[in-house]
Write a structure and sequence with these properties.
- With 155 residues, this protein is mostly beta strands.
- The chain has strands at 9-11, 18-19, 32-34, 41-42, 55-58, 64-65, 78-81, 89-90, 103-106, 112-113, 126-129, 135-136, 148-151.
- Helix content is 0%, strand content 25%.
- It is globular and about 40 Å long.
């Protein structure tokens, strides 16, 4: 589907457990994606440059979001984590240049946010962390006008 400019919406079937690298990259009109509850991995550049994508619901079964998976999705303004998330790793540049993303609430399952994962998300002002042990690599939020970073802890 890479570069399929007429694709506007897709519902990925439950038989899919991995979205392979570059599968939907450059689908400029893709505005809605329904990810199945069976999905385990969103690989590198899977949705790179899908500039019309506005919302994303990450199924609880996803454990990793690959490099540049959603990089350049400039209209992506909302990311929701479904159910009890298993997401552990957000790789380098995964959400780079998602310039409409204003806030994100990371689930407790997230243990690693790699370098430049959210670089140049120019509207990102608020991030919330629920994990007591999380590694945030150098420049993970470079170029983001963050006003609030709240590690949430239950004492």
């Amino acid at each position: 589907f890479s570069g399929c400019n007429k694709l506007k919406e897709i519902q990925i079937p439950p038989s899919v457990t991995v979205i392979e690298s570059g599968t939907f990259s450059g689908c400029l009109s893709l505005s809605k994606v329904s990810l199945p509850p069976t999905l385990k991995s969103i690989n590198d550049s899977a949705f790179l440059g899908c500039v019309s994508l506005t919302e994303l619901v990450i199924p609880e079964s996803v454990t990793i979001i690959g490099k540049k998976a959603f990089s350049g999705c400039s209209k992506l303004s909302k990311i929701t984590f479904d159910g009890k998330p298993s997401l552990a790793v957000i790789e380098q540049n995964a959400f780079a240049e998602c310039s409409s993303l204003a806030d994100i609430d990371f689930p407790e399952s997230v243990k690693l946010i790699q370098r430049e994962a959210f670089i140049k998300c120019s509207a990102l002002v608020k991030v919330d962390f629920h994990s007591k042990t999380i590694l945030i690599e150098y420049e993970a939020f470079q170029g983001c006008p963050l006003k609030s970073q709240l590690p949430k802890q239950d004492f």
